[in-house]
Amino acid sequence: MTSLPPHDVPAPVKGALLVAGTTSDAGKSVVTAGICRWLARQGVRVAPYKAQNMSLNSFVTADGAEIGRAQAMQAAACGLEPSADMNPILLKPGSDRRSQVVVMGRPLAEVDAMEYWDVKERLRQVAVDALGRLRERYDVVICEGAGSPAEINLRRGDIANMGLARAADLPVIVVGDIDRGGVFASLYGTVALLEPADQALVAGFVINKFRGAPEILAPGLDMIRGLTGREVYGVLPWLDGLWLDVEDSLALNGRPTATRAPYGGQTLRVAVVRLPRVSNFTDFDALAAEPGVTVRFVTSPAELDDTDLVVLPGSRATVSDLAWLRASGLADALPGRAVLGICGGYQMLARTIHDEVESGAGTVEGLGLLPTTVEFAAEKTLGRPSGVAYGCRVEAYEIHHGVVTAHGGESFLDGCRSGSVWGTTWHGALENDDFRRAFLADVAAVCGRDFVPAPDVSFAALRQERLDALGDMVERHLDTGALLRLLDGGAPRGMPVLPPGGSLREAPDFSQNFAQ
């Protein structure tokens, strides 16, 4: 992991805070990463933490623990190797009602939404203990909430938002996404719906994804301060290109479809099938970073018309997503094309799939594009494999129950290749620069495209640049002095209580804000 040289080291700071959000995808993950990066560059020993994460975008630590990909990214922002303590509880939905519960990096059980209420009570101490260990090892821990703390139907069993803040006495800042509209209602409503003891820990707000005239926004900032009695710690601008390592599939809607002009020759066009239970879609961030490579997420056969390479990504529900692939017509559009399958997508390419573990469907017919068969094992494979392909060293990670056996074809990253179809269980392989260039050159040759990979793109360096951009954003646009005071002193005492649907004591007079 990259070590970070300290900038101006502030006075010793020790503490923790929680970054909550008004909604999913409000920007909690990037704000947490930005604060971590800013502190790490000051020489502060800082670590990230998320008690409970619901995500299909996961990562494997060096010791074989599965955690949310966003926490791995935040660890990189701190210059640390990720650990299970940074995300002690991970929920991986397999359907609308059932999820696999991963505890301290290992699968615990498959439960439905109601069963999880019983499991959650046993996991509360796991989450608190993990945070305690991080606080012993590091000076500062920046915690990320989950969803919104104002999901009042979930408050009784909450271990990720105000339940955690109460248990650990954490000051809370609430992030709101102004790009969606309604940010002031979201900020006010979030606080007002909390019970008084929770409200007491909410210190203030951060407005995220702003693009516009600051002078037009300023009256609103004054109003929300007056209405809530809480500070606005800053307004973060909209920044393009901060799409690396996100955890929420909502972010797929804003991911880039094109990159810089080709280094040489033609553009190479990649279509990633957006499966209903797509997992580890960050595998394709490295492709989108390549000059001359366009990456689109698709859901219909018509979108494949001008595509050179089709990618079947990972899936948390291989058999179910394979049925969707057939129903959508995409399965019939794949034969004769260049196809790359990764993890669940690789399993779909097999002749047969036998699954009594994930779906309980027994034996089902695969797409038959590779000479392989799949057998689902009860024990999940978690690892950090390495190998060689195209003469290039490749380091990756793997997360799967499906065990693939090849009955022919060529070896490819512990997987299989047959003609213009490649498959592997390895995630993250495309982040290896030399391998990625060689693979794309091979795809171009198979497709008859005059594409020349750029020789100098470093995906690791690009990730560090993006993390630095987050740190810069925090340093330039947030009241970092106030953040340090929160870390040192905790939530300000005597924070006012907002009645739901009411106002703070007597409503402030804002008529001067509208004077002509």
Automatic annotation (TrEMBL):
<feature type="domain" description="CobB/CobQ-like glutamine amidotransferase">
    <location>
        <begin position="269"/>
        <end position="434"/>
    </location>
</feature>
<feature type="region of interest" description="Disordered">
    <location>
        <begin position="495"/>
        <end position="516"/>
    </location>
</feature>
<feature type="active site">
    <location>
        <position position="427"/>
    </location>
</feature>
<keyword id="KW-0315">Glutamine amidotransferase</keyword>
<comment type="similarity">
    <text>Belongs to the CobB/CobQ family. CobQ subfamily.</text>
</comment>
<comment type="function">
    <text>Catalyzes amidations at positions B, D, E, and G on adenosylcobyrinic A,C-diamide. NH(2) groups are provided by glutamine, and one molecule of ATP is hydrogenolyzed for each amidation.</text>
</comment>
<keyword id="KW-0169">Cobalamin biosynthesis</keyword>
<feature type="domain" description="CobQ/CobB/MinD/ParA nucleotide binding">
    <location>
        <begin position="18"/>
        <end position="242"/>
    </location>
</feature>
<dbReference type="InterPro" id="IPR047045">
    <property type="entry name" value="CobQ_N"/>
</dbReference>
<dbReference type="InterPro" id="IPR029062">
    <property type="entry name" value="Class_I_gatase-like"/>
</dbReference>
<keyword id="KW-0436">Ligase</keyword>
<dbReference type="InterPro" id="IPR011698">
    <property type="entry name" value="GATase_3"/>
</dbReference>
<dbReference type="InterPro" id="IPR033949">
    <property type="entry name" value="CobQ_GATase1"/>
</dbReference>
<dbReference type="GO" id="GO:0009236">
    <property type="term" value="P:cobalamin biosynthetic process"/>
</dbReference>
<dbReference type="InterPro" id="IPR002586">
    <property type="entry name" value="CobQ/CobB/MinD/ParA_Nub-bd_dom"/>
</dbReference>
<dbReference type="Pfam" id="PF01656">
    <property type="entry name" value="CbiA"/>
</dbReference>
<dbReference type="Pfam" id="PF07685">
    <property type="entry name" value="GATase_3"/>
</dbReference>
<dbReference type="InterPro" id="IPR004459">
    <property type="entry name" value="CobQ_synth"/>
</dbReference>
<dbReference type="InterPro" id="IPR027417">
    <property type="entry name" value="P-loop_NTPase"/>
</dbReference>
<dbReference type="GO" id="GO:0016874">
    <property type="term" value="F:ligase activity"/>
</dbReference>
<dbReference type="GO" id="GO:0015420">
    <property type="term" value="F:ABC-type vitamin B12 transporter activity"/>
</dbReference>
<comment type="pathway">
    <text>Cofactor biosynthesis; adenosylcobalamin biosynthesis.</text>
</comment>
<feature type="active site" description="Nucleophile">
    <location>
        <position position="343"/>
    </location>
</feature>
<protein>
    <recommendedName>
        <fullName>Cobyric acid synthase</fullName>
    </recommendedName>
</protein>
